[in-house]
Amino acid sequence: MQEERVAIAPGTIVYVDNLFGTRAIGRQGLLSPAQELRQAQNTIHQIALCHPQVTWQVKQSERCLLTISPGATAKAVMPQLLRNVHWHDLQQLLVEVPPPPESETEENPGKIQLVMGLPDRCHRRRPDWVKVATNGRIVKAPELEQTILAAFGRTLPRDRYPVCFLHLLISPKFIDWNRHPAKTKIYLHELEYWQAQIQGAIEQALRLTPENLPVAFHQERVGKLIADSGAEIDYSLATENPSDTSLLELRAIAQVRNTYIVAEHPGGMWLVEQHIAHERVLYEKLRDRWLLVDLEPPVILSQLTAAQLEQLGRLEIEVEPFGEQIWAVRSAPEMLHQREDCSEAIVELSLGGDLQAAQVATACRSAIRNGTPLTLPEMQSILDQWKCTRNPHTCPHGRPIYLSLEETALARFFRRHWVIGKSHGI
Ligand SMILES: [Zn+2]
């Protein structure tokens, strides 16, 4: 085979055919035609994610098997590859990352490009859509996949996995290809630095900022900008953590059924379920600060099993024998210690789970119940705290926290475009 360089202008069409024409038949481990096709498709999917500006067509015996339309970013490609995932379920982000401080190089900043499913909108049974690419190639990078999974921790329902495509555009000097003979697996130098950057980028993409609003919030404005500039990229480009002023404006308007807060924002309105929004707030507080305080007087419990005592010990809750089958609990999580149901809460914690599970249980018990009437200032306070959380989309059990009714969707529903002229109160 002879290799030569050619110039490629935009719009160039490249045909690749007879790919398996020279393969020896009967070799051991040879794939069936169907398997070969599936692998070829898979490979094309991967390249398409990394190079979304390319149109792909796969034909077999003149029959079209696969077409992938191009787009500005992988966000346009992903819904074509993943059934049941829509464009508006995805969030994308492009962040510039300076080279690691210890690397002592004068490198240009790298980039992290993220396209991910919002946790209240899509997730999968297997971690098969946690994909990492570096500089235009999909690779296996188990440490980075772990970072992604951890960043989505406690945002998805049990045993569900995120949809996330991470593309690192960084200097090749940070990438070590000597991990697998086929060069499909990499090590990264300065791994912890990159992991922290990726975690930060995912956190940023999950936050409730005006730029992050997935549903058509900026559609008109962005559409106009695109038309004006001729560009198609609609990334939210950010280099720093959002400050509080960049958070979404949310105003409590009313409470419905003593359960939902109606919140107005510049692009529409949301229904926020009060209990789980508050639960998310408290859970993150507990993650940041898990404090046990002394119980005075102690809580007396009876009938605890050895497993329960062991579990309380693991959570570092102080328990002492206090008589025949009676125990004195001398400390408890700060959030619980003044509650009337403190002893029930401790029994609940003794029934198992890790520290995170204990924090979820504590947050759930302490959060405002559905069915509780709230004043407007109380609702506003919940909204203000909730919108600052790191993972505002879902509660720690993975349930969606809000239902969005964006103005663009409402206008479509009410057929506002039917009205001609100004006589109907537009
Ligand atoms: Zn709950």
What is the topology, as strand order, of the major beta sheet? Answer: 6-5-7-4-3-10
Through-space gap between termini: 67 Å
CATH topology of the largest domain, by name, is formyl-coa transferase, domain 3
Task: Describe the main β-sheet briefly.
Answer: 6 strands, mixed
For the CA atoms, what is the radius of gyration?
27 Å
Q: What is the overall silhouette?
A: globular
Q: What share of the residues does DSSP label as strand, in percent?
A: 15-25%
Give the low-confidence spans: 215-244
Task: Explain what the structure shows.
The chain is an alpha+beta fold and 426 residues long. It has three domains: 1-70, no CATH class; 75-212, Ribosomal Protein S5, domain 2, CATH 3.30.230.10; 248-426, MutL, C-terminal domain, dimerisation subdomain (formyl-coa transferase, domain 3, 2-Layer Sandwich). It has eleven helices and 17 strands. The strands form five sheets. It has a six-stranded mixed β-sheet with strand order 6-5-7-4-3-10. A hairpin with a 2-residue loop joins strand 12 (260-265) and strand 13 (268-273). Helix 1 packs antiparallel against helix 2, helix 6 (274-288) crosses helix 9 (355-366) and helix 6 (274-288) crosses helix 10. The longest helix has 18 residues, at 33-50. The protein is globular, with a radius of gyration of 27 Å. Mean pLDDT is 86; it is low at 215-244. Bound molecules: zinc ion. Zinc ion (ZN) binds at residues 275-276, 279, 364, 367.
